[in-house]
Amino acid sequence: MIGPVAELPLLQPAQEPRERADAARNRLRILAAAADLVAERGIEHVSMDDVARAACVGTGTLYRRFGDRAGLALALLDEHTRAFQDALIFGPPPLGPGVPAAERLRAFGDGYLDVLEEHADLLAVAVARARRGQAGPEQLYATHLAILVREAAPRLDAEFTALSLLATLDPARHLHARRELGWPVERLRSGWRTLVDALTAAP
Amino acid sequence: MIGPVAELPLLQPAQEPRERADAARNRLRILAAAADLVAERGIEHVSMDDVARAACVGTGTLYRRFGDRAGLALALLDEHTRAFQDALIFGPPPLGPGVPAAERLRAFGDGYLDVLEEHADLLAVAVARARRGQAGPEQLYATHLAILVREAAPRLDAEFTALSLLATLDPARHLHARRELGWPVERLRSGWRTLVDALTAAP
DNA sequence: AACATAACCGGAGCGCCCTCCGGTTATTGC
DNA sequence: GCAATAACCGGAGGGCGCTCCGGTTATGTT
């Protein structure tokens, strides 16, 4: 009979053998160089070879660290969005817990639109990650929204509604609305609010 | 004083000088070859060079005809979606005119989900066209939905709501829900219905 | 029928994303 | 300190989307 203790390491194989010192140094160099280049020209004018050259690193190293272009974008994004993600769970209301879920849904849209205003291009690159198995940036937001929807509108399919709401805030669509259509952010904010209100209204 | 007749040609400069015979022949060869290859392996396993080779045509010809990969996908899609697009405007209710707008909105979702079930991968490639100035396949649907929303729910921002609803039916998201999440189509159908009902309910 | 011209053709080539592999280096146990 | 080993490094190279341009061909006119 196999003891459960012997099986535990198999259940948690994610225990990476700890990052080597030179690898960590390179990762930081890459991130710093990439952040500089992106701040200077925008992500769409920065190639992976550019980043590798600026970080004095081979392209192989770049890809082993971050998987692909979307992974690098996600890592760059992480610095800018961790505060927002923390505020969703631990922060003060209305973004964090402490008020009705419908109100938190409205606050989420406002906060996420702020993120989009600043990093929509980076997010647009990062979401492509979902097509390579890896989890993209939307995973966390989807589950968060699903929880809020389940509480604010129990009659709805919470997971489906969460993805639908998130689709509204898709980075590429945001850029389209803002740049091609020239819509002001206020229009998107009030649109989100109206959408949430309609969904959370009592039947 | 300039007569309006003299100005008319300037207002309609889109009068292309008529396609040359060899160009038309090549266009058809390309479309046929591309349709064969896509039917055989799926769009994601067909490169532009593959299509050019199969059509016995240079890649330059391919790109002059269709602009880019998304344009070719759109052209392939056109054969399969024209019937649906016509039904939206001229067809019998509930897809076509003759019933309340809310009911037509529900029917649109059902019909579009049928299209997605069959051509989501092609659509996913075609929507990238919007990022190169050219109009993608969603333009028509967006305006159609906006008209219906304006009639069914005048209190809403019709254009914004139309884009939001369309975002729910985004091809890439559809594939994600169907393949990665394993959701059945029925879940997406009822989700769409609930969404439309919530938005078109009286305040 | 011959010409002028505008449209069209093909494929070489560029930049990009990403993979692969032989050589190198940090880490661990002794 | 030293050897064994596992992780890491760099860059050459493949596949792909797309562009560019010198040569070719169809079309309308004389």
What does the model show?
Two copies of one chain form a homodimer. By secondary structure, chain A is mostly helical. Chain A is built from ten helices and no strands. Chain A has helices at 4-11, 21-41, 48-54, 59-66, 69-89, 101-126, 138-152, 158-168, 171-180, 185-200. Chain A starts with a helix and ends with a helix. In chain A, 35% of the residues are buried. At the A-B interface, helix 8, helix 9 and helix 10 of A face helix 8, helix 9 and helix 10 of B. Chain A binds a DNA duplex (30 and 30 nucleotides) through helix 2, helix 3 and helix 4.
Question: What's the structural blueprint in terms of helices and strands?
Answer:
2 copies of one chain form a homodimer.
Chain A: H1 4-11, H2 21-41, H3 48-54, H4 59-66, H5 69-89, H6 101-126, H7 138-152, H8 158-168, H9 171-180, H10 185-200
Chain A binds a DNA duplex (30 and 30 nucleotides) through helix 2, helix 3 and helix 4.
Average pLDDT for all residues of chain A: 88
> End-to-end distance of chain A, in Å?
55 Å
Q: Outline the biggest β-sheet of chain A.
A: none
Based on CA inertia axes, which overall geometry of chain A fits? Answer: elongated
Number of helices of chain A: 10
Quaternary organization: homodimer
Q: What value does the Rg of chain A take, in angstroms?
A: 20 Å
**How much of the sequence of chain A is in beta strands?**
under 5%
Low-confidence stretches of chain A: 1-14
H/E order of the elements of chain A? HHHHHHHHHH
Structural class of chain A: mainly alpha
Percent in helix of chain A: over 70%
Total strand segments of chain A:
0
The most extensive contact between chains is: A-B, 26 and 26 residues
